Amino acid sequence: MDSRTKSDRKVAESRGRRADPSLGRVLKGFVRFPRALPIIIFVAISALTATGVWAIEKAQRNARQNELAQIATAASSALERRANANAAYLRSGAALLGTQDEISPALFQTFVGQLRLDANFRGAEGIGWAPRVDSGSIPSFVAAQREAGQDDFTVHPMPRPDQAYAVPVTFLQPLTERNRRALGYNMFSEATRRAAMLEAERLARPTTSGRLVLIQEGSTKADTGFLTYMPVFSIDQFGGRRLKGYIYSPFNAQDFLESAVEGELPKRAHIEIYDGQIAPENLLAEMKLGETGGTSLVRPIVIGNRQWTMRIESLKTSLLSEIAVITLLAGLIVASLALAIAWLLTRQAAEARQVIGILEEQAAIRNSLTRELNHRVKNTLANVLSIVSLTRRRATDIDSFATSLDGRIRALSATHDLLTQSEWGTTPVRSVIEVEMAPYALGRDATVDMDGPDVELAPNDALSLGLAIHELATNAAKFGALSVPQGRVEVNWDLVSSGLVRVRWRETGGPPVPQNRPRGFGTELIEKIVAHELRNPVDLVFEPSGVRCTMLIPVRTRSEFMIRAKENAPS
């Protein structure tokens, strides 16, 4: 049992070790990018919210589509019921009038009165009678109508020579002022009406005409309308059928639509009726209750053996429904709260890591400076002696000697202060060089020429440049151009590019430089340590005429080197 338990533990530990690398990479990723966790949380909650809003909107669209289908069904049924009711009246009228030898005004008025037209007939202009009158019988027909009481009755327009008969409107009930305009009008003279009448005669059933303007509208209005014709036949003694005329109903299309769908159309849709295909020139009537732009639905309907097209479109709605807006706002609030909490936690962790990184970097800087301090102390003592010797050779009296010596010693001290202060901000190239060369470039004893544009260096880069200039100056003061009165040093710098400055050091007039000289610490410092810190090679040449050195130094923005702005990658 003990051996098996130990074996199981080893297997579990091995599995845990195999899982550790991936988990470690994830943790390192969050350490390296601390803002990723709150952003991931916010994006995840926002994605869930967006998915919920999309699902809600999809359900709302489906509901609107189903509602529109119900509206279309109700509206088409209402229109067809209204048309069928009118057709029933016309059929009954055709059955009555077909049995009469003569149709008088009293007979027709009695027939219409007995129909007791109810609300189902709303939208129509009434019921009319238009007999077939042969072209040769038109004068006698007009005379008969005038004798019957229609004093100003005329047939207009007269049939063309190729037309055997006319179909003038003779009676039209109720006899309103509008309907009086239609009396005597030869409907067979107009192509749309003629086509409907011929089709009704052929089918012997109520037939609706195409889109037209009723005679009742006069010349002041252009509302569209249509007519429904029912042919009336007489039967001769041989059983033959002869067209006697037409009983018909004229309709204003807009009134027909509004009366038919009254109460059937919710105030969330727009309806249009077209004669045939959907086209502006085929529009019969429409009911617009608001701005359109929503879902649309097209339904064919048959009115009096003629096909119409009904188009229903839902009114334009807001971009999101109310429930979707509530869901979206709630999701954004939750995502924002989660983002704020995760942000605070990760910010605290990031600040702790930054403090640790700052302490580690400062420790590394202190170690480097401690090593450099040991070397600089020796060089400082040598510099002091060289300064005293150089000052003594150039001085003419005790006061000038004391003044020059005091200034150079103070400049040497300022070099250390500048290098220390450069850790906290940018330092001009000129300031670094001037501080390091100040002990050798005062007043009339100036033996150094400096020239170059204004360029700011990062603290570490300024420190490296200062170390290099200090070493070159120390070497020149010990062995080179600064060790003799006639020696001179030229320090020039220029911008190679926006991110790189070139510094040139050149000595002239000094003692000849031996070519077999040993390499000292200063040379190693410049060619290896300084070059490494500047991330560019240093060209240091000991020519017989004097030392020449060229350095390339990066020019960085403040965000690249400020310690508190860095995000140190984990080791």
Task: Describe the secondary-structure layout.
Layout: H1 2-32, H2 36-97, H3 105-115, E1 127-131, E2 133-134, H4 138-147, E3 165-166, E4 171-173, H5 177-180, H6 191-203, E5 207-208, E6 225-235, E7 241-252, H7 253-260, E8 269-275, E9 283-287, E10 292-303, E11 306-315, H8 322-394, H9 398-421, E12 427-428, H10 429-437, E13 448-451, E14 456-457, H11 459-478, E15 488-497, E16 500-508, H12 521-534, E17 539-543, E18 546-554, H13 558-561
Parallel strand pairs: 13-15
Antiparallel strand pairs: 1-4, 1-7, 2-3, 5-6, 6-7, 8-9, 8-11, 10-11, 12-14, 15-16, 16-18, 17-18
Helix pairs in contact: 2-3, 2-8, 8-9, 8-11, 9-10, 9-11, 10-11, 11-12
Any overview of this molecule?
This is histidine kinase. One of its GO terms (cellular component) is membrane. It is an enzyme of class 2 (transferase). Its EC number is 2.7.13.3. 50% of the residues lie in helices and 20% in strands. It has a 5-stranded antiparallel beta sheet, with helices on both faces. Strands 13-15-16-18-17 form a 5-stranded mixed beta sheet, with helices on one face. Strands 9-8-11-10 form a 4-stranded antiparallel beta sheet. The protein has 2 domains: 254 residues, Beta-Lactamase; 214 residues, Histidine kinase-like ATPase, C-terminal domain (Heat Shock Protein 90, 2-Layer Sandwich). It is an alpha+beta fold.
